[in-house]
Amino acid sequence: MLIIPIQNKPDWRRPPLMCFALILVNLLVFVFYQGGDEARWQEAENYYFESDLPDLEEQRFLMYVDEMHPEWRLQMGVEGEEFVYRELLWNPEFHHWLLPKLEQEGQTRWLQQRQHFADLRDRMSSMALGLTPAEPNIAGLFGHMFLHGSWDHLIGNMVFLLLFGLSVELALGGLWFIGLYLLGGLAAAGLHMLVESGSHVPMVGASGAVSAIMGMFVAIYGVRRLRFFYTVGFMFGEFSAPALMVLPLWLGKEIFGFLYGDAGIAYWAHTGGLLAGFVLALILIYWRPLVQTMPQEEEELPSPQKSALARIDRFQEEGKLLEAAEAAAAAVRQYPDFLPLIQRYIELTAISPDSEAFHRANLALFAQAANLQIEARILAAGYHSYLHATQKPRALTAKACLLMARRATEAKDWPWLEELLQRLIARGVQHPLIPKLGTALVSYYRRIGEEGRAREMIELTQGVEIPGQP
């Protein structure tokens, strides 16, 4: 689930320098500091396997598993030595379990080698500056906010920092923004340490601090209604609501993730950041006025289309979903080119994917392929969502498929084009556009060196007859 605001652009006469500086620092740390982790790890790994440690520690690891993690035996039996050596090299808990035993036994040489290996391994960024709940320190409390596990991790956090940070810095000012960012990150780390106390697994990432910025955003906007973009599974769209309403949704998403999501994600750090950012911003706003209020859109008279959307919203808020769907259907018939109405119609009928109304709603979307103002990616996303939702895609008429195939060609979405052409040809559709679209697809495959695919498309389209020609 994703919920992000759709808001005005910030005032570029007062650029959010602190927000940009944070993004730059995170990028530089990842490239120039964390970029050396591979070499650090290689040095530590080479030392380990050149020492006596592999022979000495394998049996001790089995004792550790029996004593601390008997549930690992099944996984160890499946993965074998790969599992054993991964844990021997990476597991800090095994290291802390082993050291006191070696000291009691007087295993001086073994102890020296194990400590030297740990010193080499702990030079890696996640060990040196990550936050370890069992052994917190100042370097980890602040350093973890500027480390990331991958490019995807970094880019995701920085995109959200940019989305929310621009407006928050504009409202609070640069110094308060950076101060509350760090305080929010510390609060996120505190809740993570409370929940994961005793864990030796280091946490890295700016997610907690970025979540604090999201909490500040909600506190600044308060009860003001905003437009939000959302995705839930394959469904997507927009809705209008007070900013305050999305805070429990974000919190619920994190709790759900903790219960049912990826165990490697620090959900409680996100939760702590959201709550801390919200509370800190409320205190600051009460204590001093905002540097600048959030950018306001000029009030516009509601268009007939927006009035229709507002009527549908009222039905939904009252729980009258059937009336909302009927109002959406009537509005789409009256305003067939207004995309938000079509998307709302699809959303309201998606609960019954085999209903005639759901097929009509999607057919209205596919008809927009003739409207060049509608982006091809929106049509493609709607097409794939429709196929995923229903086993009998009656809305994919020959005309709709031809219109979308032409848009797929213009957008150079070749997989989508091929799928549409195969659907048209399988149904025996004869149209002069099909060979032309097939030729475009053949040219694409030849440009990328896929001669086999090109020949398949030639064979697929050569049997299509052009009406009116002998």
Lay out the secondary structure.
Blueprint: E1 2-6, H1 17-33, H2 37-50, H3 53-68, H4 73-79, H5 81-90, H6 92-105, H7 108-121, H8 125-129, H9 138-143, H10 151-172, H11 174-195, H12 207-221, E2 225-232, E3 235-242, H13 246-260, H14 267-287, H15 304-317, H16 321-334, H17 339-349, H18 356-366, H19 376-389, H20 398-410, H21 414-426, H22 433-447, H23 451-461
Antiparallel strand pairs: 1-2, 2-3
Helix pairs in contact: 1-10, 1-11, 2-7, 6-7, 10-11, 10-12, 11-12, 11-14, 12-14, 13-14, 15-16, 16-17, 17-18, 20-21, 20-22, 21-22, 22-23
Keywords, please?
3 strands; single chain; mainly alpha; 67% helix; 3-stranded antiparallel beta sheet; 23 helices; 470 residues; globular
The share of residues in helices is: 55-70%
* Count of β-strands: 3
Strand order of the largest sheet: 1-2-3
Overall average residue pLDDT: 87
Ends distance = 55 Å
Which class of secondary structure composition applies to the elements? mainly alpha
Strand content: under 5%
Low-pLDDT stretches are 295-301, 465-470
Gross morphology:
globular
Write down the oligomeric state: single chain
Order of helices and strands: EHHHHHHHHHHHHEEHHHHHHHHHHH
Question: Number of DSSP helices?
Answer: 23
Radius of gyration, taken over Cα atoms and rounded to an integer in Å:
29 Å
Main β sheet profile: 3 strands, antiparallel
Quick synopsis:
The protein is mostly helical and 470 residues long. Helices cover 67% and strands 4% of the residues. The protein has 23 helices and three strands.
